Amino acid sequence: MATELKQRLLTGNKAMAEAIAQEMTRDPSVFVMGEDVGRYGGIFGATEGLYEKFGSERVIDTPISETAFIGAAIGAAAEGMRPIVELMFVDFFGVCMDQIYNHMAKIHYMSGGSVKLPLVLMTAVGGGYNDAAQHSQTLYATFAHLPGLKVVAPSTPYDLKGMMISAIRDDNPVLFMFHKSLQGLGWMAPIDAAVGHVPEEPYTVPIGKARIAREGRDVTIVAVQMMVHHALAAAEQLAAEGIEAEVIDLRSLVPLDRQTIVDSVRKTHRLLVVDEDYLSYGITAEVAATVAEQALYELAAPIRRLAVPDVPIPYSRPLEQFVLPNPDKIAAAVRQLMAEG
Amino acid sequence: MSIPFEHLQWMYETMVKIRTYEERLVEAYAEGKYPVFNIGAGPVPGEMHLAAGQEPAAVGICVHLKPEDTVTAPHRPHHHAIAKGVDLRRMTAEIYGKATGLGKGKGGHMHLFDPATKFSCGGIIAAGMPHAAGAALASKMRGKDWVAVAFIGEGAANQGAFHETLNLAALWKLPLVVVIEDNRYGISVPKALSTAVERNDARAAAYGIPGYYVADNDVLEMYRVSREAVERARRGEGPSLIEIETYRYLGHFQGDPEVYRAKEEVPGLREKDPIRRLREHLLAQGVAEQDMAAWEARAKAAVDEAFAFARDSEYPAPEAALEDVFAASEV
Ligand SMILES: Cc1ncc(C[n+]2csc(CCOP(=O)(O)OP(=O)(O)O)c2C)c(N)n1
Ligand SMILES: [Mg+2]
């Protein structure tokens, strides 16, 4: 009871903004750039209150020139600054991908380790609210595929804060993907998972360590962000039927905590991987390959994958709902998996 | 400059149609989203960027276009689509996510594609500009006098695609006209905080092409400079750049808290309403009130019909999500 009373509840966006504010206070080389990050506080609230606190010198509204300001973050980071830049929606990566793919991720390597780029590129991901094909992607795998960029995708307010602080303090470029639906914004469908306990003092959550969101003995469900919460809801349904699912929240895509996945599968002998990204060549394939390589003979049934079936995200509600995984689809996939062995 | 009566009439009626359409969408979009606003709820979910107040930019140039001319538009596309003559029923059905929509419900309001009127739009800033240049290139390669018009916002003039496209179009003398709608803001960021020059027509000089500026949302001035730019493109003399100072009456998107502008701003802008100004001009020209009332009624009827069609249409079957990724191909 005593600990519960101490719970300090924050939305995802406030957890992120608090992390950034604390690091900006601690370290004068930290600053923020992006479209509408100033007075507006970020379209998804990730910079709420920062402009009022730190002013326009350190919380900088940019022109709609992603190549220029993301490229400038690279240049500033090479000088020892610690920029946080926001790409408003991950879908807009196309206009600035050269800076990310060929420079941000490779300069440290190509320089033989002599140049460090301590920067955070934060970006909003996810669909489910009918924003169609250019504003609803997650693109986890597109970025995780690339060597040289750490990629995180937290799913709770606690991790959003702790991983943001880790990302800012990391001497590598970190792509920080936050899910729109988990920001707790007033204008999106309210969901419980977007609010959670967040300690006030600064703390870090390590990059590269998965979290067991729910323990279970019968089947392992590996997921990220919204899919973690859908998997947890599915696990509730399944528990009522006597199936105990273990849910792994990857949190970090690069580095990927393969050990936690493999350990879980050794225990449950069944694996379902769920992803809000496209099916082919994605996280589901990477996790499945890891288990096939390291624990194939532990499997009692073939690995199952559930993801967007290789189509762009459609606008119309029945179409979008058809392509996105949800708790019912996850539960159905698990039942099928259980029936197979 | 004398403007043919049919052009004045068309511009007036089309502006009324656009305004009526956008106002109708304000209501339709709000349906099912309150008391607690939820962007994903209601019959018209997702983001919604409306153009009430920005009608002069669209009608002032589209009045000079032929069906064979191409138009590309950004995320705020309804005024351009209506001015280009996109089927209002199928456009509205698309916005409602219905199977009868232009994209069978796959695109939505930011992604309207109508090959019949050579109109398209998209949600990535400045992305339509190179597409318009490509249409202009195709016209030139085929020896046609068709032109392409790319509409963008003033915020988009700071995107790489803007500068690359202008250089390429100028270099190749493409029949392209770029229209920049300066509605003062890119979402919350005022032009002065995003743009190194006060007026974007100045940037035309960097590419050796004509640049025009239309002040105060003036539809007649927009008509005049657009005629020059379109005729020049048709003659094969290359691209032009037009910036028009225009007014966004509504939020960047519906649901925008608009914390970045003073409460008095929009009422002040509305006092200079371009539809009312054109109406006064027509009255001064001796056009009868009742004639204008008839045009207004026709515009409203078209909008009513489009919304009724959209509402009455069926949703696509869920499995249709899997179709149309690739075109059927013999190869
Ligand atoms: C490449 C890219 N960056 C950012 C955005 C997000 N965004 C959508 S609209 C907008 C502002 C556009 O301003 P402007 O070009 O002036 O058009 P307006 O909305 O005023 O009509 C921004 C930044 C985007 N869609 N694409
Ligand atoms: Mg603008």
Sum up the structure in keywords:
heterodimer, A: 341 residues, Rossmann fold, five-stranded mixed β-sheet, 37% helix, B: 331 residues, alpha/beta, 11 helices, globular, binds thiamine diphosphate, binds magnesium ion
Identify the strand order in the major beta sheet of chain A. Answer: 3-2-4-5-7-6-12
How many strand elements of chain A? 14
The CATH architecture of the largest domain in chain A is 3-Layer(aba) Sandwich
Mean pLDDT of chain B: 97
| Rg of chain A, alpha carbons | 20 Å
Please bin the fraction of helical residues of chain B: 40-55%
CATH topology category name of the largest domain in chain A: Rossmann fold
Distance from N terminus to C terminus of chain A (CA atoms, Å) equals 42 Å
What structural class should be given to the helix and strand makeup of chain B?
alpha/beta
Topology record:
The complex is a heterodimer of chains A (341) and B (331).
Chain A: H1 2-5, E1 9-11, H2 12-26, E2 30-34, H3 50-54, E3 59-61, H4 66-78, E4 82-89, H5 97-104, H6 107-110, E5 120-125, H7 140-144, E6 150-152, H8 157-169, E7 174-179, E8 195-197, E9 211-214, E10 219-223, H9 226-240, E11 245-249, E12 252-254, H10 258-268, E13 271-278, H11 283-295, E14 304-308, H12 317-323, H13 327-340
Parallel strand pairs in A: 2-3, 2-4, 4-5, 5-7, 6-7, 10-11, 10-13, 13-14
Antiparallel strand pairs in A: 1-8, 6-12, 9-11
Helix pairs in contact in A: 2-8, 4-5, 9-13, 10-11
Chain B: H1 5-30, H2 55-62, E1 70-73, H3 78-84, H4 88-95, E2 113-114, E3 119-121, H5 128-141, E4 148-153, H6 160-171, E5 176-182, E6 185-186, E7 189-190, H7 191-194, E8 211-214, H8 219-234, E9 240-245, H9 265-270, H10 274-284, H11 289-312
Parallel strand pairs in B: 1-3, 1-4, 4-5, 5-9, 8-9
Antiparallel strand pairs in B: 2-3, 6-7
Helix pairs in contact in B: 1-2, 1-3, 1-10, 1-11, 2-3, 2-8, 4-11, 5-6
